[in-house]
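stuck on this one:
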Amino acid sequence: MKMNKERIRTYSWENPEEIAEKAMNLSGYDFLKAMFEDKVAVPPILQTLNFTISEFNKGNIVFEFTPQEYHYNPIGSVHGGVITTILDSAIGCSLHSTLPKNTAYTTLEIKLNFLKKITEKTGVLKTNTKIIHSGKSTALVESDLIDESGNTYAHAVSTCMVFNLKK
């Protein structure tokens, strides 16, 4: 017997190409500060997964989310891809907040440790990010996903490539 209790979630977003264009004209810090102050729209992935930027500090942009059932995998917990996405976002934006105008980054690799099951009962989770090394061409960054009591649910370490956009 198939039980269907359909749930509907509706959300909207702004054109990501326009967001990226604004990023090209500002330092990473100024661009992310404008986003934090709602002067620039957040990228669609934040709307899709219902992530927010809750704190803005140079080198540590704090993301948070409250786990919901639309984040779930087939076995009733938050999908590892959602956890990876929030940590990758925190790592990337934290690094980006330190970069000058016309400089960008991309994730070369990311390694995660999932330490505790995450469900709707877990409550609000936040990232805490630390830049370990930031050079001319690479950066090493780590981030934890923690609850309000400081318990760690996941830990990520990422190598990012840093590059100049001017030709």
The domain at 16-164 is CATH 3.10.129.10 (Thiol Ester Dehydrase; Chain A). Helices lie at 16-24, 28-36, 44-49, 80-96. The mean pLDDT is 95.
